[in-house]
From TrEMBL:
Full protein name: NitT/TauT family transport system ATP-binding protein
Keywords for this protein: ATP-binding, Cell membrane, Membrane, Nucleotide-binding, Translocase, Transport
SMART domains (UniProt xref): AAA
Tagged with keyword Translocase: yes
Extent of the signal sequence: none
UniProt GO MF annotations: ATP binding; ATP hydrolysis activity
Matching InterPro entries: AAA+_ATPase, ABC_transporter-like_ATP-bd, ABC_transporter-like_CS, ABC_transporter_ATP-bind, P-loop_NTPase
High-level lineage: Bacteria, Bacillati, Actinomycetota, Actinomycetes, Propionibacteriales
Alphabetical list of Pfam families matching this protein: ABC_tran (PF00005)
ABC transporter domain sequence ranges: 20-252
Length: 264
């Protein structure tokens, strides 16, 4: 495994919390009566407040790993920890944003964003109402709070999905190719927005992406996985000042390094 030393100080967060550890995480599924190995002893540590991207060949197991960190599935071997506690199921402190915004079509933007607290019976709590309003403003949907999802553009719908995840004050926010279906311009805007939200809100970010440039624009580290069953091929520190310029020599060098690993 290639490891580069982290020299850029991890951003300090007031609410310190959100550290992720996967230890020897192995996952397999059954396909046509035969076991399909998907993750092979994946060991990773993400300190609280870091932003990490996961890249690797299609089908290698990136989404599978994200689901294990979210607590949506359990590994066949190994352990996943959040702040030292074993992850045994989903928890509002760990949010996830998918490629599709998955908004409920019959609810307004405001009601979709307030769905988590509503399910927890906290919809009318004044702190929750204030938080829902703050998140609507934070993602720039103030004038669309009463709109239905069908009235939103793809980028706006994904902003609503981000706000819905942020309402729960997640310490960990997991992203599974959240910008994959957006046009290049909207994608670039939302990349900047995600960095801003990460800085403002102080969560630990883990993003699966196929786009090496996106990984380098956003992340403190890029983890490169092998083909299935996924093993960590490299753990690369992105020691570049933000906002990052894609034509900077350091950026181009890292992009070359990662693309070479992905072609192995
Ligand atoms: N619930 C499941 N049951 C059976 N097989 C599954 C299940 N979930 C995932 N797989 C298989 O596990 C492998 C890894 O899937 P995963 O979705 O994690 O890949 P990925 O790296 O996210 O791929 P992509 O980049 O295309 O999204 C695939 O071969 C997939 O078919
Ligand atoms: Mg996937």
């Amino acid at each position: 495994m290639v490891t580069t030393t982290t020299t850029q100080a991890t951003r300090r967060v007031a609410s310190a919390g959100g550290a992720i550890d996967t230890v020897g995480v192995t996952q397999a599924f059954w396909a046509h009566h035969t076991p399909l190995p998907v993750l092979d002893e994946v060991t990773l540590s993400v300190p609280a407040g870091q932003f990490v991207s996961l890249v690797g060949p299609s089908g290698c197991g990136k989404s599978t790993l994200l689901r294990l960190i979210a607590g949506l599935d359990r590994p066949v071997a190994g352990h996943v920890y959040a702040d030292g506690h074993e992850v045994t199921g989903p928890d509002p402190s760990r949010g996830i944003v998918f490629q599709d915004p998955t908004l409920l079509p019959w609810l307004s933007v405001e009601k979709n964003i307030g769905l988590g607290p509503q399910v927890q019976g906290r919809r009318d709590d004044p702190f929750v109402v204030e938080r829902v309003n703050a998140m609507i403003d934070l993602v720039g949907l103030g004038s669309f709070r009463d709109a239905l999802p069908a009235q939103l553009s793809g980028g706006m719908a994904q902003r609503a999905a981000l706000a819905r995840a942020l309402v729960n004050r997640p310490q960990i926010l997991l992203f599974d190719e959240p910008l994959g279906k957006l046009d290049a311009l909207t994608r670039a805007t939302l990349q900047t927005e995600i960095v801003r939200l990460w800085r403002d809100q102080g969560f630990t970010g883990v993003m699966v992406t196929h786009d090496v440039e996106e990984a380098l624009l956003l992340s403190d580290r890029v983890i490169v996985f092998s083909a299935r069953p996924a093993r960590v091929l490299a753990d690369i520190c992105v020691d570049l000042e933000r906002p990052r310029a894609q034509d900077a020599a350091g950026f181009r060098e890292l992009r070359r390094e990662i693309l070479a690993l992905l072609r192995q």
